[in-house]
Amino acid sequence: MKRARRIGILTAGGDSPGLNAAIRGIGKAAMGNYGMQVVGFRDGFRGLAEDRSVRLDRRLSGILTVGGTILGTSRDKPHRMLVDGEVMDMTGAVVSTYERHRLDALVCLGGGGTAKNALRLVRAGLNVITLPKTIDNDVVMTDATFGFATALDVATDAIDRLHSTAHSHHRIIVCEIMGHRAGWLTLGAGLAGGADVILIPEIPYSVESIAEAIRRRVRSGSNFSIVAVAEGAGEPSHAEAFRQAEARKRAASTPEEIQAAVAGLAAVEAAHEGNTLRLAAHLEALTGLESRVTILGYVQRGGTPSPADRLLATRLGSSGADLIAQGVFGVMVAARGEGTEPVPLDQVAGKRKPVPRDHSWVLAAQHVGTCFGD
Ligand code: F6P
């Protein structure tokens, strides 16, 4: 086995608190324990295709507590990248950059989509590992993803703050939390913050049953309510349209079919835009309580990573360096209990971990009387 001497790192997909902690974790462990050189690539797979790199040796100190990613990120995919207005397969350019830098391994920090792109590069002959990050916490085969804990703190704090103003004005406050496809963040923050209603993509809701839960609270003397709603939560018709659009995307094989399926999915998402505002107006009409909306948006993704995320990112990063030194590639470094474990990328790529209906957080919320609108 050839000893790894030079490794590349990139961050892809939406940014997430803890990315810099992970870059530092893997970089310091790779340099300090194994004498490797570490090169960063800017803006995800695009920077790799365009060979925009930065030596990380002297850039790893002082970044543990910094939000975002010092490398920059993008949602570009190696095999379908917009170049001069045209969609191009840049896999060849990526392989050339890897060879030009004489890399022995590439580390991609990202979610399920990044794992899918990483697997494509493994199939193109590169040594790749991934680390799971996303505030959505929806990566399969890992206990957790870094970014989630920080976002959970932010969203819970927001719900705490909304309580006192909702209570004072006898209002419904609908708080939109990130998560187009997975409800972990809304569920976690809703449960920790004591939201009266929690709406997640995995459990389609009926506006009438939410209104009835709010009216029940009014009858029992609580004339305010907090509704925590995930971006992707909706009524059964939305859930069904989304399911069908995703199934079409999975089944698509020709470039034309893939393009049509991607457009179909985007159309379903576009039709859902503004849903939180519509929901609040609808609840106001059905309950007679004044309603207001708070959209948390990108504050959930920005800023200083929490201690829990710094720990997780450092743990995963340093284990990643060990795996590269052992010559283990084509895997995601998963968190398992107190340890870490390599999981083959084909078990992770393109997959998503939804909230199971019988998850202990759902059951606990139901036990304390939280309405899921079902
Ligand atoms: O990082 C995941 C996520 O935060 C989702 O919850 C959210 O819907 C999405 O990214 C939005 O990100 P962007 O606007 O950067 O595409």
Mean pLDDT value: 97
The CATH class of the largest domain is: Alpha Beta
Globular, elongated, flat, extended or rod-shaped: what is the shape? globular
Q: Describe the largest sheet.
A: 7 strands, mixed
Report how far the terminal alpha carbons are from each other. 56 Å
Q: What do you see in this structure?
A:
The protein has 2 domains: 186 residues, Rossmann fold, CATH 3.40.50; 150 residues, 3-Layer(aba) Sandwich (Rossmann fold), CATH 3.40.50. It is 44% helix and 17% strand. The chain is built from 12 helices and 13 strands. The strands form 3 sheets. It has a 7-stranded mixed beta sheet with strand order 3-2-1-6-7-12-13, sandwiched between helices. Strands 9-10-8-11 form a 4-stranded parallel beta sheet, with helices on both faces. Strand 12 and strand 13 form a beta hairpin. Helix 1 packs parallel to helix 11 and helix 5 crosses helix 6. The chain is globular.
